[in-house]
Specification:
- By secondary structure, the protein is α+β, with helices and mostly antiparallel strands.
- It has two domains: about 1-30; about 30-160, 3-Layer(bba) Sandwich (Chalcone isomerase).
- The protein contains four helices and five strands; from the N terminus they run αββαβββαα.
- It has helices at about 1-30, 65-70, 135-140, 155-160; strands at about 45-55, 55-60, 80-90, 90-100, 115-120.
- A hairpin with a 2-residue loop joins strand 1 (about 45-55) and strand 2.
- Bound molecules: heme C.
- Heme C (HEC) binds near residues 82, 96, 140 and 150.
Length: about 160
């Protein structure tokens, strides 16, 4: 039994280092935000706020674990995904997604990174918008560092 377990562990750690290498290789050719996949099950999380601004309506979702961390005034946990539906004139215009993974920020210089967050925009059909590499997103979210780079952190704290 032990041998089988160890064997399985060896295989999975080899797979992890292989994919880490593949990512490092890919970063030279692709934007680092390619690492963010569309979170297909985002709506099963907590819909913690709606933001209305003129004809723009934003519906924002994250995990129960992230809400709990914010309530305790803590940084959001590793693996947190925040997904926003962005409606213009009542019609779904795009999705914007933030995802936090330990080490992701290392792809960026210190004066550019937003902690370990990566940012990506998706079209209404949930395919990535590759014209947007996430750098504008990151620079606008950086001043929110004291709230783990999240503008609606206070709304997470107030969520049920
Ligand atoms: C000009 C500043 C600015 C830019 C650029 C920007 N954001 Fe934001 N973002 C905000 C603000 C402000 C909010 C809070 C909601 C609101 O007021 O619309 C927000 C909210 C969010 C949220 C919900 C979590 C939070 O921080 O409140 C996500 C997810 C998000 N943005 C992702 C992105 C992505 C991905 C991009 C790039 C495609 C992006 N943002 C570009 C300012 C910006």
């Amino acid at each position: 039994m032990d041998a089988v377990k160890h064997g399985a562990l060896a295989i999975s750690s080899a797979a992890v280092s292989f994919s880490a290498l593949a990512i490092v290789g890919a970063l030279s050719a692709l934007a680092a935000n390619e690492r963010v996949a569309f979170p297909q099950d985002y709506a099963a999380g907590v819909h913690y706020t709606t933001v209305n601004r003129g004809s723009v309506r934003e519906e924002i979702f994250t995990s129960r674990e992230a809400i709990e961390a914010a309530r305790n005034g803590m940084p959001l946990p590793d693996g947190t995904v925040i997904a926003m539906e962005d409606y213009r004139g009542g019609k779904l215009y795009r999705y914007v997604v933030m995802e936090k993974r330990a080490g992701w920020g290392e792809a960026y210089p210190a004066n550019v990174r937003a902690g370990d967050w990566e940012f990506r925009e998706f079209r209404p059909d949930r395919t990535p918008n590759r014209d947007e590499d996430g750098s504008r997103c990151m620079s606008c979210h950086r001043p929110q560092a004291s709230k783990d780079f999240v503008f609606t952190y206070d709304r997470m704290q107030a969520a049920r």
